[in-house]
Each structure stands twice: as C-alpha cells, then as structure tokens.
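Researcher: Last one for today. Full complex below.
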Amino acid sequence: MTPSFELPLVIFTILSQQAIGLTLLYALRTAGRSARPEPSARIQWLASAGILALGLVVSLTHLGHPEGAPRAVIHLSTAWLSREALLFGLLVALMAVTGFLGAVRALVIAAAAAGLVALFVQGMVYAPPSFPAVNNALPFAFFLVTAIILGAGTASWFAPQDRQPFLRRILVGALVAGLLLFLISPCIWLSGGAIMRLTAVAYFASTLYWAHIGVGLILPLLVVLAVRRIPVWLPVLLLAGALCGRLVFYVDTVHSAVNLGGVY
Amino acid sequence: MKKQLGFYVDAKRCIGCFTCAMACKNQYQQEPGVIWRQVYPLKEEIYPHHERAFYSLACNHCEHPACLEVCPVDAYSKRPQDGIVVHHQEQCIGCGNCIRSCPYGAPRFNPVQKRAEKCSLCWQRLDAGLDPACVASCPTNALTLIDLATFADPGAVQFPPGFPKMGRLNPSTRFRQAELPKIIKREDVS
Ligand code: SF4
Ligand code: SF4
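Model: Here's the assembly. Have a good evening.
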C-alpha cells in the first residue's frame, strides 16, 4: 500500500490478531464443557491482554503525532479507524478483567464476540475504495484466518493435553483455508481491472508472498500432519510466516492513484 | 442543487506546461516532494498519439469525501457555502489514513510537519475574490473554476478514461476529453 511502508501497523495487526485468536480459541474449546476454566486460564488471558496492549503501543509509533492518539476516537460516526481504536482499547481491558477474574464464562463469551467484531472493524479500515483489490470482504477474511492460525498455534502453549487434538484440527483446517484464500485471491484479481491485475502481479512477484505461503502455511501444515501434534516451536514459525504475509499486504497492494492517466 | 465548486479540466486545451502545478507550489511553498497539483500525461493505451494529452489533477472536493469519512480525528470539513473540502492541519495526528483512502492520491504526507495536507481550492483566495492560483496561472485557460449548481456543459464528463471511476465519492472535477488529431495522408507521396 502507498504511500509508505508502515512496519508498526504490520506488527500491530499481527499481534492484535494473535491476541484475538487466543481469545476465540479459548472460547471455542471450552464451549459446552463444565464451567470450570482451564488451569492456565488466568495466565493465558493476561497474555492475550499483554500481546494486544503491546500491539497498541507499537501502533502509536506510526503516528506523526502520537500525543494526539486519544483524540482518534472522536469520529465514530463514519471513521472505521475511530471505531477500531475504541474497540481495541475496550478489548484489551476486557481481556485483562477476564484474566483477573479467572475466565468467568460470561466474560469469555463477551471477549470472544468483541474480538470477532474487532476483526471485522479492522478489516473495514483496510478496505477503502483506493485499493480495488481489497475494497471488499477480503481484509476481514485475511485477518480472521490469520487470527485463527496464530490463535490455535499459540494456544497450544497453554491448553491442557486433552485439548491439544482439538487445537491441532482447528490449526489444520485454518492452514488449509488460509492456503486456498491467499492463493486464490490474487488469481481472481488477475481477472479484474488494471489496478487489481497490478496487485496480483506484485503479489506473485514478491518473495515475501511465497515465504508466507511456504513457511507460514505449507510447512506448518506438513509438520502438524506428520507429527500429529503442534510442536512447541511451531507458533514462532507461524508468526514469522504471518508477518511476511502482512508485509506483502501493506507493500504490494496497489493504490488506484498509481495509474492516473492510464487504465484504471 | 447547492453550490459546489470544482475544477474544469479541458484536456483539449491543456499543453502540459505544468504552470498550474508550479503556481500551486509557488503559492504554498510545500516541502520538497509534497505535491498538491500534478499534471499527468495520458498513457498511450488511452491516447495513442505522439503529441501527448494531459490531465491537471488535484483534490476533487468530492460530494462524499473519503478523506473526511475516514479521518479518526475529524480533521476535514466540507464548507457548506461552496462544498470545498478543507483539511485542518492543526487537528491532524498524521495517521496516514486519508492518504491511504483517497482514490485520487490527493492528500500527501508532509514529512516536516508529520501531518497530511492537500489542495484547499485556495479558499482564502476565493474568499478574497481571487481565482485559485492554478486557475489564474493557466496560459491556455485549460483549467477553470466551475460551480456544479450552474454548470451545464453537455460535452463535459466526470469519469474520462485515465481518471478512476468512484461514483460513491462523486468527485466535483469535470473534463473535456482530448481528441485525437485528424491525420490526412497523401497517397501519392511516399
Ligand atoms: S479527491 Fe480525495 S482528498 Fe479530495 S475530497 Fe475527494 S476523497 Fe478527499
Ligand atoms: S493523516 Fe491526519 S487528516 Fe489524514 S486521516 Fe490521519 S489524522 Fe486525519
């Protein structure tokens, strides 16, 4: 994306999606079970809050005037960015309270629901008309898949043994979905307008794009299928792959103004 | 219809001399690399003739401005009396969201101020009874100021080839398209 390459936003979106993924995966794997939280629930929820808080702090560094950040919530009527700032601020508090209160069921469900809404809002921030390739539901789909992949991977550090097979199945499903999504989307752009085609060509020509596909999706999938568990080092690989994919999203998604005077 | 000022870009008259872009630079003394008005040559796929044609483009002062909608600190306003989209730079926190979101690339990042900025349609000059600096400078009258409430040129187009079609924003710029010259070849001369 133009005009500049925004590393703080790459880190913020990835960390926030990891935190929301942890939240979603906790809510999913404890659904329908006895109301007792997992033994490591507190530390897991506080970790989610910490990861999201770290992401928010990093996101401030992309502002020209970080001291004005509190004002970023004043335009809720039309600005998705204001909604994102408010929602993520509330979410970090909700995650921390859920951790301190030992993962009370009602709070777990509320945090998971708020996390899903936050992912949707974040998707809308990155779907402006100036990027025809992603002026649709794709950013939300990218972010949701990334959240589930990173959430399932990271949750394997916290979940008890009897819930590891569940996490493994979710991770395999999300990796397959991610592979299809990230491979098929640029192919569809190839059949779109000039800017969409430029975006597809830039993605396919990017080493980072293939690093994401290879290191972030295919390799983890093969590893999990081969060893039938989530190795302790795998979440690091997943994180590295997701960072590569997000860099491509920021750097190679083409802006409609690059071809003024040419075919749009 | 309410008064809505906009630019009329006459691509038939424009000779690509960049005087309008220079006049803007002269008026506002932007930082190096920060450009509010730019003259874009039409690419060959749109205008296949060796004498080029041009669009002089800046902010389009849209009816539904993406910049205004996406700004988290509400640093943009649309003047009710003439529809000019004004950026209030002192409120801007430099998040870059308007720069990313405007499909026409009008807002730019000022690396010294660390805030966005864009064409103001010279509202201070207009309020003083003057033309915008770019309009006043154009030697061929290819760039003029129009009010869409009274503008009635049936030949004018809103989305010519080479200008992204963004109907929802409803940009206020209108164009007269460039025409390819009539080429007459003598058969008896090789
Ligand atoms: S052209 Fe861009 S900056 Fe100008 S009013 Fe429209 S959306 Fe805003
Ligand atoms: S860069 Fe400034 S004007 Fe543009 S959206 Fe951010 S705060 Fe608003």
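The longest strand of chain B covers residues 5-10. Residues B 70-71, 73, 75, 87, 92-98, 115-116 surround iron/sulfur cluster (ligand 2) (CB under 6 Å).
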